[in-house]
Amino acid sequence: MDFNSIGCIAEYKFAITAMKHNINVSFPLLHSSPYDCITDSKNGLKKIQIKSASGKGDKVRCFLRNTKKKSYPIDEVDYFAVWIESHNGFYIFKNDVKRTSIVLEKKGKHLKKFNNFAVL
Question: Which domain holds residue 55?
Fold first, then answer.
């Protein structure tokens, strides 16, 4: 499967899971948008950039860069949602603009980020 297909699957998985948490999801019409979707919940509107990372181990690295290999500006992306197939879920966390990558693990300090749709 190519990277475009994997990314599309992650976006649809995110939308389906968000809707199961009573979060409305909207997708931009243009693919050149800096965010992949907007969530609408009791917490307001949030611009979400969805990423997918593969890896078999407990720790998986995900790159949080735009097409120019720079971090996403805070006015363009509020949150990241990173799908990791081997963990069977999303890590959801606020864009701090400082990172261009993150190592995620299901245990320890990242446990609170795993499938944390409540922040949206």
Answer: 3-119
The 10s digit of each residue's pLDDT in 93-118 is: 999 999 899 999 988 788 999 999 99
Q: What is the pLDDT of residues 31-67, one digit of tens each?
A: 889 999 999 999 999 999 999 998 877 899 999 998 8
| CATH number, residue 71 | 3.40.1350.10
pTM of the predicted structure, to 2 decimals: 0.94
Candidates 39, 37, 33; CA nearest to 66 is 33
User: 4-10: which pairs have CB atoms within 8 A and are 24 or more residues apart?
Assistant: 6/52, 6/54, 7/50, 7/52, 9/52, 10/50, 10/51, 10/52, 10/83
Q: How many Cβ atoms are within 10 Å of 28's Cβ, its own excluded?
A: 13
